[in-house]
Structure formats: structure tokens, C-alpha cells
Amino acid sequence: MLSARCKRYPDKEFLVVEDLHGGIERLTYREFQELVQKLATLLQEYGIQKGDKVLLHLPNGSAFMVSWFAILSVGGVMVPTNILSTEEEMKYLVTHSESKIIISEKEYEEKFSTFRLPLLLSRLGEERRGIWLEQEAGKMRSLPIPLQLASGDEAAILYTSGTTSKPKGVVLTHKNYLHTGKQMAKILHYQQTDRMLIALPMFHGNGQYYMAMPALYTGASIAITENFSATNYIKQAKRLEATIGSLFSAPIRMILKKEFDPADATNSLRAVIYAQGLTDGQYEAFSRRYGVELCQLYGMTETVAVPLINLSKRDEHHASIGKEAGGYQVKLRGENGKEVPAGEAGEITIAGVPGETIMKEYFKNPGATDEAIRENWLYSGDIGRKDPLTGLYYFVDRKKDMMKRAGENIAAGEVETVLNEHDAVFESAVISVPDPMYEEEIHAFVILKDDNTTGSEELIDWCRKRLAKFKVPQAIHITEEFPRTSVGKIQKHQLKNWI
């Protein structure tokens, strides 16, 4: 696909990258392909063969993009990892993935000092110790005779966050990437004139699935920022001339928390896709401030493209995750595995073809694979509800975040929605802890808006007036911040240690 786009748009700008210091790098399709070919040749020089794993430990940037495509072009399998991971966490990922080479930066070199693996370091600057990726790749001339690659060949392993167990490696094929590029481009009507903004970490599927691949499929371009900045997100979008953005609800709330700059009201963005719902006030404020259409979707690393997306233009439906899209079929199932009646909550399951429209498998974990994929249905572990009148789906909660008190089921998300509607609340997170009498006790953690002094009792009273008695938190804890993942998701398993 890259080769085809290079033939058609050789001199079109493909990649625009802004680093932490505001420096901007620009690459045309042809320039990008030349870098990919040189690095691919270098990887072959280091013995990378079809099926070999190459671990990436890089921030957002051109080195990540070039490495991704170079690894795949020689039949290798990319293993992207979080630069915030500790040395201990990296030991597991390097070993479990069976990686043959590590591509990283000088800053993270010590994490890999115990491994006897080739370590290619990008962006070394004046320190030339070790193997400097750009310098070594620059010596290469052209890619040797290409391997015979098939679309079903493995292309990447994306490790999902582990909470109570080690991370699971989601195995993706070339066909998976081609599928998401085609479907996301069609669903969201991406044009050649569009420029997708990637500000969230690229080791996640988000930037790869929803931004990079559809841009390549369409012949559009990609803007990348080294990291997400709530203060500068809109300014970077303007500066890099981006037209499509992708965020989660947490980064959107972070943007709204910053003082609004009226100059940001005029920007180049026409749409921002996002996941994990916003309150009415947050949705309305973001749309009004920046004149950008917000489009909520539902997807997972395992689903590849999005099986559900909200393309409704009606604001009153903004809380919905939409309807089936991209050729996917969705069913909500009860504990018995049977489809629940419309209006009732059930586990979101997605029909798909492993290695094409959904992940191929979990790497070296057949038990988890068999549990997740049953008769070509992917069991998401998420609970949803379908409105019988509109046909729109709504996210209820993670299955593991469903709670039970005195025999009654409670969705943490429902309690959080009520708390977030209070004028004093910026964000909330609800968890449960064991209770000897009532099964579980409900605890809420709340971040208040700036300069607000509302107390826990007032918030509990607020909940009592709006929730059934068994859903009201037994305790509310005021805090200044939550433990989060790299994309802003709250790590609820850590909150349990705060009680």
C-alpha cells in the first residue's frame, strides 16, 4: 500500500512531526519510503527474518513510523511498548515477545542493559555511543529482493494493559491493518486533503488503527506530536494543519480544564473521534468552544476497526456509542451466552474473522484466546445496552467494573454519571470493596473543579436524590488526581489500595 501511494503521490507531504521543543520535521511519501527501505535493509543486515519480533520503545515521531513500516516490510513483527514502562515491566515484554532486536532511544538504554540483544538507538544527538539507528540506516542503499509476504502473515503484537494479570499480546496480521485502514476511511469519509492528528501514544492501537492506516489508505497525510498537551492540543492542530483528531474522554476533560484561549475557536479541525463518554456539559462546551464535531466510537485493541460508532448529528444522542459499522455484527449476550432482549444490558460481542476483522489471537495464550473468541464471536468484557426505539447502543460499564450490593447489580459508570453531573465535580471514579454483610461496599473517588470546597456528605446527598438506595456510595473520597494509564484511563485497581 505504501508503494502504491508513493507511485501516485511521490512528492505529497505524508508526515509532519512536532517534537517537544517545537521543531517540525516534514517527509513526503517518497522520502518516507526511502527511509523505510534503508532501515529495512539494516534490519536484514542484523538477521531479521520473517516472523522475527522487533521491540519498539520509542515516543511518537518519525522514528516510530519508519520503524513500524520497515519491520513489516521484511516480514518482521512489530512489538510497540510504552516508554513509561519500568525496567521490570520491560523484562517481561522483551522475554515474552521473544524479541530479536530492540529499537529505542539513549534515554531508555539502561532498561535493556541486561539483555544480550542488538539495541538500535534513535536520536542520539552528539552522544554516538552504541548503535545509532539513523546513521547506520543511512549507510544502506536499497532493499534486497522482497520476501514473499501474505496478508495473513503476522505484523504486530500490541500488549494490552494488565490489571490483575500480566499484559496480553494481541496478535495482528497485515490483513488486520489493511482492514482497519479501509473501514475507518469509509466510515468517517476521510479525504486525500485530510490530515490526521496523532497526539496519543502510538504504541496503542488508536493512532495506528484510526489515524495512520486510514490516512495511508486514502492518500492523506499524518501529523504527529511527541506527546499530548492539553494546553497546546488545539494550537498544535492549527500549526500542523490537522483536520481530524482522536482522543479519549479524559484528554478532552483536561483540555476543558485549561483556560480557554479565544484564538483557538478558529482552527483547522473538522472532527474529533473519541471514546469513553462525556457529560452533556463537557460535550456541549468542547463543541461550542472549538466548533468541532465530536464523534463517539466503541472499539478495542482486539476489534481492530470500530464495530460501533455514533454518526448521529443530534446532540441529544451524543452519549451513545452509535450503531454497527464497518461490516461488523454486534450482539449483547447474557451470562448464559444468549442474546438479551432489546433494552436490557448484556456483554458486547462482535462477529469477526480472526486475523482479518478481529485480532488473530493472544500471543502464546491459547486459554485467553479461547475465552475471548468463541465460534468467531469476540467477547469484549464490556457491558452495553441497545435502545429499542432508536437502535442506538450505549456503553454501560466494563464487566469487571459491574458491582453487586445486597443482590442488586450496579454499574460503576451509572454512579459516575450522576456524580459528574454535580456542578462541583470535575471527574469521578467508582469502585467496590468486599463487605461481609452486603457483598460489596461502594466507594467513589472525586476530583473537584478548581477552587471548589464541596464536601463528601453533600455529594452523597446528591446521589441519594438521584439513585436507588443500593446504588448510593457508602463513602466518597475527595482527591486531587487519579492513577492513570498513558492515555488517561483511570487505573481503578490502584484506587482499591487507597481505601
From TrEMBL:
Q: Which Pfam families match?
A: AMP-binding, AMP-binding_C
**Into which family does the record put it?**
Belongs to the ATP-dependent AMP-binding enzyme family.
**AMP-binding enzyme C-terminal domain location:** 414-489
PROSITE patterns the record matches: AMP_BINDING (PS00455)
* SUPFAM superfamilies xrefs: Acetyl-CoA synthetase-like
Keywords attached to this entry: Ligase
* Listed GO MF terms: acid-thiol ligase activity
Species source reads Planococcus lenghuensis
Record-linked Gene3D superfamilies: 3.30.300.30, N-terminal domain of ligase-like
Q: Kindly list any coiled-coil regions of this protein.
A: none
Top-rank taxon, per record: Bacteria
**AMP-dependent synthetase/ligase domain location, by residue?**
4-363
What's this protein's name?
ATP-dependent acyl-CoA ligase
